[in-house]
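Standup notes
- HV: blocked on the assembly model, inputs below
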Amino acid sequence: MEIAEDNQDIINNKDNKVLQEFEKNVLQKKKTPILFKILITIASLFICYFIFLMFYFPIKQVKEFNNTYADSTLYSEEEKIILLDDNYSSLKIKEAFLQTRLSMAKSDSICFSIDLVDSLLMLEVKGVVIHEAKITKIEISRFFSRVDNEALIKFLSESFIIGNKNATIEKEPYILKKAPKDTIEAATQIFTPDTLAQEIICMTMLFNKNLLLEINQSEEKPEHKNISYNIKTKVQSFKYIINRVFDYKSPTYIPKISIELPKRDIKSIYRAIPYHSQMALHL
Amino acid sequence: MKNEVSTNTGNENTNKKPFFLRSIWERWLKKFLKYLSIFFIIVFGTTWLLFYVIPFAQELSFLFLPETHKGFIAADNKTSDKFKDKVIKNTLKIQRKLDSNFPRAAYIIINSTENKFFLYSGKRLIRKGMCSTGSYTLLQGSENQQWIFKTPRGSMRIHGKTTSPVWKKPDWAFIEEGLPVPPVNDNSRFEYGTLGDYALSLGDGYLIHGTLYKRFLGLPVTHGCIRLNDDDLKSVYNTLTVGSKVFIY
């Protein structure tokens, strides 16, 4: 009825072009259901795949983790049962953490330890703690509370090595200076560092043992100011998943630990650690 | 009446719109905007799904799995205590080994990012203050020569100690000032008083020394050496001995 009224109005306006357009639309409407059906099918397949991806791979990863790190020769049957006790396993985790720090002390390079139980991040050289930072906020993936204690102890008993690192600040802030021709030109080149620069300091590290560590500043952090870093980080993790697909490996879930520190500490730590630094972790 | 007039004028205005503009809008712009908006919806939707929804949902998926052995307590207390004692003893042993890494003699820690120093004796902090470290300047000279003015990081030792040090200016000091480079032992190479009253050598030409430019303390302005103010330098000189450890990060 409404269509008829509309048609009448259009005829009254005597605008043939509008009428033609209306006819076109009516004709097109006949085609849309097929296209619409295809689109809906594709979209539902896409959603189904992602639901599968979302729920299946993290659960699969827990099983894989348990299989990879559980060592049947490491503990006696008696100890394996006692390992189920969380008090005992936390003692074993502490022992593993200290053991890792001790083995890292043999190296000459700067390394770091994260003690999530005492909320501390320590920078170390040859076993000497040279910088200590208080962690203000911790977010740990539920993954670690779902894996077996036995596997977790093994996982933490060796140091983690940084594979990929990304930050909002430069690691080595070089300033290029061309040799002046004379003393007059040299006088114009005198450099004074900018002490008032406001920067957002965040960093992410991807370790060799499939662990992602995110360190954010505890001070206020407007998201729009580090949008490029956010995109870069997310694209990097996406690329990691895609690369696995192209290598015919199953997509993987990367457990993440997120911590917050004062930005002065993050800056000192980021600039101090070598490109492939070692880390000990206490969960 | 006024309304009618105004409506008519409005219709006339639309009808008066040039034909080519209307056709451009209807044929191209309208379609372009439509496809552009669809493109952006798809791009943002996918990004949102990939970067935000999936990680969030993946974390949620763990809720379907039970927490590992939460609240489990081993039934046999005697056996579990035996194992616990063993672990505690081993942990203490490792802790002692770790503690033994701390130098017993005095040592200094330098934070080259914040330009601060911390002087320790064992685990006791004796003195702390401002210093100046490498500026990270990359000086490019002629003939593909270049120098990087940064303070090396890691564990080092004091190689030597001197009073009233004299600075023998290297080539880059002249190049940086736009001066001609003099012969190796030319008098113009020797500067007295610029390094303060004391200098402690770290090897490879790096020194802990004093400065005339005290306003720059706390800033990265040096050519790689560590500059301290007079009082701090005296304290560091008197506390550290040859062989004392220096940790720079």
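- HV (later): unblocked. The two ends of chain A are 70 Å apart (CA to CA). Residues 200 and 222 of chain A are 8 Å apart (CA to CA).
- Next: hand off to the docking folks.
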